[in-house]
Structure formats: structure tokens, C-alpha cells
Amino acid sequence: MRNMLALFAAALLTVVGVGWYLGWYKVRSQPASVPGQHSVNIDINTNKISADLQKGEQKLQQWLEPKSGEPSKKTDGGLMLPSPSSPPHAKTSDPKG
Question: Is 50 part of a structural domain of the chain?
Fold first, then answer.
């Protein structure tokens, strides 16, 4: 249970830190109208958040898709097969036989 709570806290702090760094929100503190009190305002930029998430999604899709011009490697039972465009391995002559 403690590990789950620590994981949640680490994820929350990561999102808060990344959001602040990327400018997703701004926190402002100013004196309130009542003496001795402060007013805290949090401005959330939802347009920037959605634009950054779309950019990240596009980069992830580009990373996951095989690059154009490169044939994808196919697997057969967990073994990697060479792509058809790769040159065959050169056979070396055995001096003993």
C-alpha cells in the first residue's frame, strides 16, 4: 500500500513539474484586500496542454511506425528474420577443409 502511495506521489510530482516547465499553468500570489492575507491565483492554459499532448501523440506514432523505405522485420516464433534488402552473410572459406 505504501509503495502505491509513493508511486502516485512521484507521478503527481512529475506531472506538476513538467506542467510548470512547459507553461501549462502559472501560479500567482498577491496581497488580498484584507491585511495579512494573500490571494493565490492559478491560471491553466488548456490550449497549450492540448497542443503539447497532440504533438507528443504524433511523435509517439512516428516512433512506433516503421520508417518509410525500411522494410519491417518479421518474426517467426520469436526469431528475428533478416529483411529482404539486407545482404546475405559472406561465407568464409575454411582453410582446414
Answer: yes
